[in-house]
Write a structure and sequence with these properties.
There is one protein chain. By secondary structure, the chain is mainly β. Helices cover about 5% and strands about 40% of the residues. Strands 10, 11, 12, 13, 14 and 15 form a six-stranded antiparallel beta sheet that branches. The longest helix has 21 residues, at about 505-525.
């Protein structure tokens, strides 16, 4: 039996995810159904199986596009995380050694700075490491031993701000909080100085989330800071209530919000989106997520309260996404208790639910929504009980299921979709048999615009011809695998979007979603005193 070590929200980002990440409450109709589709993989081809021929490779942590290749960091708790790359999405090659030569580097986070590829690791034995490569093949270690503190176990999502690289570092783990998260800064990409220690004065701030943009010109750039009114913002994970901070220079930080906006149940707060000149923050809360907004960072307005009233342990967290001038919020609930919901707002305050809760399947506890280059909206679900699903819609009203696992595996607990070279790929996480990648053989035909609205919803499944009319609710509240050898002493897909502001969210979302995974586990095993999941969850899916 495989033994799993504890993992970081930053790196392994546990899940299902919401963990993308993770009774139908607030259903828009009294009619609901569980999918009777036993499987739907017609038109799909499996291009990767068995974890790239290593069943210890359970899932992909994140992607970056670098020098004509799409790179993927793969989670492996046994022999160390791995780095793979592809040009076409079908044939993949492994780069370097497992764990970059250290099996304790169980998770790897890839990012780019000054035309170099970086690999930051999660390592709770020796401390986090940072590696650099100019060619994408040969990596050199530039940071080891947790930057001088072995309690610095994980490298978090960094940002590029004012020409400098700001790297958040996780200190300790949930249940074993140490001295608090840190921020390290580098101007040249090789020499780092600590600018923040001790969790910004509160050791319970052991995780830091920057407001970052992972995409630019349809590429995973990993990651550019999003500036709001001249400031860069960050949020924290804090068991006594998350905090919001901002800075004009990345060195001196000003606290704007503490104690979870006055609700200690908001244990994680994430600056998630700038929409119509307002900054939006999403919280994680077991009683239901909250969304706050501000036009100056000082005065805040709550625009979503208690997960739209879905109930405790439901709509615990959400991800915001702007599509064609509207704001979408996809939510995540505790598995076996609630299902996801998708909400839409044209002004950021008044919300309308898109479709049924869980799209009619109460086992779909999480989902992400994306607008791809063919002008269709795509929803990929998280479902550990009767199979992961992918749905698509031209108008947001009529939804068609295009993928569902044929043979449901209880070890398939996460998945996600991504576009590369005008093809859709489905990534499935398997904690026992190794990850899989499926390719949709029908090429996506790029268009330039799409109009969406929501008044009624129609769902079409291939074996159950069911049409559901639902009233809307408004609330104010591959595999050719080769290996390239590294030098001695070195351990040796762009999601396309449409519209001026629309983006498809990626690893940044699932960092936060990882919070849900850990808290969900605590709820299931400690609060509810029931055992729903008999295995550790895999990392969240990229999207």
């Amino acid at each position: 039996m495989k033994q799993y070590v504890k993992c970081s929200l930053f790196m392994i980002m546990v899940i299902v995810i919401l963990t993308v990440i993770l009774g139908d409450a607030l259903a828009i109709s009294s009619t609901s159904y569980s999918s009777e589709v036993l499987g739907l993989t017609e038109g799909w081809v499996k291009v990767v199986s068995g974890g790239f021929n290593d069943t210890n490779n359970i899932g992909i942590n994140n992607f970056v596009d670098f020098k004509g290749y799409r790179y993927a960091s793969v989670v492996n708790f046994e022999t160390g995380g791995e780095i793979w790359r592809t040009k076409n999405g079908d044939q993949w090659e492994k780069i370097g050694l497992d764990g970059l030569g250290n099996s304790n580097n169980s998770g790897i986070l890839l990012f780019i700075f000054r035309d170099s590829l970086y690999a930051g690791t999660y390592n709770d034995e020796d401390g986090a490491e940072i590696w650099i490569s100019s060619d994408g093949i040969n990596f050199k270690k530039i940071v080891s031993g947790g930057l001088g503190d072995k309690d610095n176990v994980g490298i978090g999502i960094p940002i590029i701000f004012n020409g400098k690289l700001l790297v958040p570092v996780q200190n300790g783990n949930l249940g074993s909080i140490k001295d608090g998260a840190e921020i390290w800064i580098s101007e040249d990409g090789e020499h780092f100085q600590r600018s923040i220690k001790g969790g910004l004065g509160e050791r319970s701030n052991f995780l830091i989330y920057f407001l970052a943009q992972p995409f630019e010109q349809h590429k995973y750039i990993g990651f550019q800071a999003i500036i709001f009114n001249g400031y860069v913002y960050l949020g924290t994970y804090n068991p006594t209530g998350g905090e919001i901070w901002r800075s004009k220079d990345g060195v001196n930080w000003e606290k704007m919000i503490d104690e979870g906006f006055g609700d200690t149940g908001n244990i994680a707060v994430h600056p998630d989106r700038v929409f119509r000149d307002k900054l939006y923050v999403v919280s994680f809360n077991l009683n239901g997520l909250n969304v706050f907004r501000s036009n100056d960072g000082k005065v805040w307005e709550k625009v979503v309260e208690n997960g739209f009233g879905a109930g405790k342990y439901e709509n615990n967290f959400g991800v915001l996404n702007e599509i064609n001038g509207s704001l979408y919020l996809s939510t995540f609930s505790t598995p076996a208790i609630g299902a996801f919901q998708i909400w839409k707002s044209n002004d950021g305050k008044n919300w309308t639910q898109v479709g049924l809760t869980g799209f009619g399947n109460k086992n779909n506890h999480g989902a992400g929504i994306s607008l791809l280059s063919d002008g269709f909206l795509y929803v990929s679900t998280l479902n550990a009980f009767d199979g992961l699903e992918v749905w698509k819609s031209r108008d947001g009203l009529n939804w068609e299921m295009i993928f569902k696992e044929e043979a449901v595996s209880k070890t398939h607990t996460g998945g996600g979709i991504v576009e590369l070279n005008n093809h859709l790929y489905m990534y499935i996480y398997d904690s026992v048999e190794g990850m899989e990648i499926w390719k949709y053989m029908n090429p996506l035909q790029p268009i330039t615009t799409i109009q969406t609205s929501v008044t009624t919803s129609i769902y079409t499944t291939p074996t159950l011809k069911t049409t559901l009319q639902t009233e809307s609710i408004t609330s104010t509240l591959h595999t050719a695998q080769t290996t390239k050898s590294p030098n001695t002493e070195s351990a040796s897909i762009s999601t396309q979007t449409i519209g001026t502001h629309e983006t498809v969210r990626g690893i940044m979302d699932y960092i936060l979603i990882g919070v849900i995974a850990i808290v969900t586990i605590a709820v299931i095993f400690i609060v509810l005193k029931i055992k729903v999941l008999a295995r550790p969850p895999p990392p969240p899916p990229p999207q």
